[in-house]
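Bug #77: duplicate submission created two jobs. Keeping one. Sequence:
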Amino acid sequence: MKAMVSTWLADAIMYELWVGSDGTSARTIYDSSLPWLIGKALLMKQVHAVKQRLGITKENAERREAEVTLLSFMILFCNLLISNLRTYTSVRKHTPVE
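Kept job's structure:
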């Protein structure tokens, strides 16, 4: 289960970094020191590679985006729930019973 969640999270982060956002952070990381044309070409190549890895095509782009967004939301919610449950359990253990 943990490996599956990690894979989903990695896919969501990769999607958001390269495809879902305006590309500012990816450009800063990937091609800030390169001449504009070379950096742009490499960035487009990376975006294409990410889309291929995630199975995104022109026909299914909206559906795949919704899937990735939903999975990342579910992972965030589950992590928040687990964190709150751990905190509750920890407080409950140290609270004296009357």
